[in-house]
Fold this protein.
Amino acid sequence: MKLRIVGLGMLMILGTISVLAQDTFSDEDLNKYATVMKWAAGEKVKMSAAVSAAVKESEVVSGAVYNKLSKAIKAGDVNSTDATQEEVDGFIAIQENTENSKAEFKIVYIEKIGSDIGNGLYNRLKKALKSDDEVKARYQAIFESIEMEETDESEK
């Protein structure tokens, strides 16, 4: 009986410790995170638009050829397409530009995380957003309000 009481007591203590160990995040913390994530989402849209524009402007690579080659590369078999060498070279040029843009984005993204959020807060928030529904809901509301503000400003 004493062992059961001691066991229950230990479980209660461990439960209390785990609740106390959970991070609490201020709205300001969530706003910092949401602002950087909103910026990142916007940059990804710009990169996607740049790829689309490069394909449209290309005299060698059509959208259909680009998609075919993209799928073939992901599958690891470029030779499975009927693309000409000129089309493959054009595709590779577009891909190289895309990879350069991604590398530049990553550098700025990492800098923004460090300067605007802080690496420790970023890591804790990223982890909490995967497991804590309350933090996730608060973050989503803040993210959506930032989107609404930007929409309102762009309509003026």
Q: What stands out?
A: Residues 6 and 86 are 76 Å apart (CA to CA). Residues 2-155 form one domain. Helices lie at 2-21, 27-57, 63-75, 85-117, 119-131, 133-155.
